[in-house]
Amino acid sequence: MKKYVVVWGATFFVVVCVSLYLMMETVxxxxxxxxxxxxxxxxxxxxxxxxxxxxxQQTIREIKDYVRSMSQGDxxxxxxxxxxxxxxxxxxxxxxxxxVNKDKVKDTDNTALVFHPKGGVKLSGxxxxxxxxPNPKSDIQMLRVYENLKFENPDGGAWKQGWRVTxxxxxxxxDNMLHVFVLPHSHTDPGWVKKFMDYYTQQTKPILDNVLNxxxxxxxxRFIYAELSFFSLWWESLSADKRDTTKRLINNGQxxxxxxxxxxxxxxxxxxxxxxxxxxxxxxxxxxVTGFSPKSGWAxxxxxxxxxxxxxxxxxxxxxxxxxxxxxxxKKHLAKNKNLEFMWRQLWDTEGSSDxxxxxxxxxSYDIPHTCGPDPKICCQFDFARMSPGPYSCPWRVxxxxxxESNVAERTALLIxxxxxKASLYGSNAxxxxxxxxxxxxxxxxxxxxxxNYQKIFDYLDKNPQLGVRAKFGTLTEYFNKIxxxxxxxxxxxxxxxxxxTGDFFTYADKDDHYWSxxxxxxxxxxxxxxxxxxxxxxxxxxxxxxxxxxxxxRLTGFPVDQMMQLLVEARRxxxxxxxxxxxxxxxxxxxxxxxxxxxxxxENNCKTIIAEAVAFISMATKSDYKQSRFFDFxxxxxxxxxxxxxxxxxxxxxxxxxxxxxxxxxxxxxxxNLHVSDPNVEVTDSxxxxxxxxxxxxxxxxxxxxxxxxxxxxxxxxPALGITRYQITQKERGSHNxxxxxxxxxxxxxxxxxxxxxxxKSSVEFSLENLYLKATFSGTNGLLKTVMTKSTxxxxxxxxxxxxxxxxxxxxxxxxxxxxxxxxxKPLRVSHPVIRVVRGPIVSxxxxxxxxxxxxxRLHNTTGLDGRSLDVFNLVDIRNEVNYELSMKIITDVQxxxxxxxxxxxxxxxxxxxxxxxxxxxxxxxxxxxxxxIEDDKTRFSVLTAQSLGVASLHKGEIQVMLDRTLxxxxxxxxxxxxxxxxPTPNRFRILIEQRSSPPVKDKLTGFPSLEAxxxxxxxxxxxxxxxxxxxxxxxxxxxQHSFLSVPLPCDVHLLNLRSLQKSYDGPITRGDDSALLLHxxxxxxxxxNTDLQCTYTQGRVRLRELFSxxxxxxxxxxxxxxxxxxxxxxSLDSDLTLDPMEIYSFKVKW
Length: 1152
Ligand SMILES: [Zn+2]
Hints:
alpha+beta, 54 strands, twelve-stranded mixed beta sheet, disordered N terminus, globular, 1152 residues, binds zinc ion, single chain
């Protein structure tokens, strides 16, 4: 056996190498001008073989190790050996590879080329049961509720959207007390109609100062607060004494910090990675300065709620949460059945491990008139801040009265009647009464009025137990604890009789047909900016961790760790701030949007600096050669917060210029890279010094005008998992491996002469582009996509792209930043004889169409990588000269999605099934799409992946409509006080993926999962490879040609969510601590969609942590933590397999 293994391994290796070189020979002798595509195919395959060889070398190394340990008597290795051999996928079988390539080389007719992909990664086990197994058990299922509700809107009397609430006389008495928890709160938006810092100095600082004074003065008082962005500023301003007092008030439970995020994040547009980032930043800060860990979640203002947030809170150690902005019809429905409190369960969770206790508020608003009970006219009289004289009053024209001995009985009776009515909507003898509003308690006089008057009522109730109410100031956690106490359950567990709910709370309506689906799209420029910076922040986090740990491990100096850490923390906080529910939502005033934009630009620049420096340090063959800001530029340049990205132009010369590619993903990349260069004639050399194929395209300054000094260079790059690769670009007069693309104008457009590129003009009914996997056909009249043929099946799929417009309905309340109230169904955007420009080359081909308001580009990559399986769609949208106008992109397919079902994602974390209901208006059927949407029938799935958050709908069978931008002339009366008129030319990027199902989807599933390929394609779309071209005329020290920080790439379905540096302390200047936070996410995928040609492995979630990172980093200890790293769950064995469950996020603290 021993001998066999060694011989087998060595033979395999030699055969692979020899065959590779034989093939290269074949390629070079067969290559002709007319065989561009074939040449590309072969080269692409060779690249794959190289990668396969390195995979096999890894296998051989493993075999050698096993054999070595076998000789030391370990019998178990025989089994391991078998499993290693079993893991070898058919794709690495040499004969297959050679056969495929021989065929390709012979085949010179591109259109006849049918590509037969190799077998893919085989999925099995727990991940498959997610899509194939039953739905989790629940008592309330939101999609079913939507199906059954009539969505009527009768007048309910005092509680307009409810009914006349009554309760049995004497239900609560001395023997059956109602326990009321009154909780003062102040909703402080970190930016909305004022800028963040103006809110802080003018209102939030006084509020927190008051809270400190008033709570310290009386231990019976309570307050709840949420936004760490403000809290941290305030903390920095406090004296040591006041810090001690604050710490005491927080730790004795008087001042509850709930959620503990940097902001109260939006739950529609925010990506879960950014939600986690801002939650960690807030939680770490809070714990760092006070030692406190949040126990409850508080979200009174986000405009709709996502179960993703419930999941993140649960995994952070929070056991109860509160929400307010739920559709008024749903509130009434839940209240009717006493279901406003429930255990919220994830749609994939059949075990119930994600359950979290959730309290939904019943009435219209979180202000005091809508929190004491169903009658706002009465509740307003118990908002003592509205007493005269003062800044506030009651619109119901009955002012509050100060509580005196003479009126306390009457006033108390009036108030507790409301309490008892509200309590009758819930199932327990505990009642929660929030007491606050936006930016309340900023005046000492207001605090005094609220605390004193309520205390008088509480004292009176204490003396009169026959009234059946015991009331006090109490935090949300105290209230939840009371629920558990009364029901005999433990905090964190399900109180008996509480229902389990699955689903989400989109799309929110607060009254009539006023659906808040406008904000899914408002300010799309900032929405794409957010996502772009978020991915750069992740790259920067990981790069800084790698460079810092490497420097420390090798006792080096020179890389400025703490300087970079300070830039990083600023970037985290600026991006965290934007996750606020008036930030990424696009619902702040223009000058506040500018303020956010400037902070985002700072974050972006910081991230670029960190990536450039860390990657430069990592790339040095001798680390002492590293000099700060000496060698590399970051490829992308953004001049101001509202401008588009420009690309750096690499000045190519006859001496090679180095470009470093950095891949922050845990999987190797094989994809098309695009650089801007100063000369069209170049040669690209890979990390091994081999010249590889490249393509040069013109750079267009106008639709039909080429630049003379800037060109776009494309080549297929190989970058290892969590690593870097160096490529070199050299000016070459006749680069034998470089192709100049061919330009065709259809329909119109004057070809310019005297350029290096061939330009022709044609007219045609239709034309097509194709690559290895797809053939896309476009209209010759308007240049828009019509059909896509998938070559593996030969099926042609209708994929008709068009653009649509909406106007705003007239009336008093019209579409604005929050609301979408269209004037009827969408109308097609008229497109007449646009310039259609087609650029074809062996690596990339693209169609650009220039229509009114949109420059629309569809691009095909000709590689065997993931980018070859889908169409990339790019729009540059500009609707600045329109008024009350919304633009969308619609794709009509032949997918027979029954019952108008569409799947949309929630925060890029999970997918939920939606149904388009005719009983609801258009705006109610629009949902957030932070990452993707798909429709499917038994055979075909049609997915749109998006690189930015936008609204999406599927209003008719077979159709997906993505909202692109909106310009609205008026305020929609939700407090922002202006329309949305600050539109910018806005880029957005999508991928269209058409997949064949091997088995029909399970009927009645409430959730969907992407295919493995769609998931990896999404990662590739969003997490671009960072490109670092060398600075011109710099003398470059020797560089590593390639390096990976992983000893084995992560399994296909495990994503390196982050490798985050932790702060050493929260005292004094920011410095980097020794430990890192490692966040891994194992995604759930649909096994009913086969994959092909993936360069990764599938381990059913098994990861061995010691072997994960390369020896250059050397992990010493790993501890499992709660999501935000506040709760330690103990050490994790480094030497045994750790099994990650699908859909779960894991946090670890790593000691290096
Ligand atoms: Zn708010």
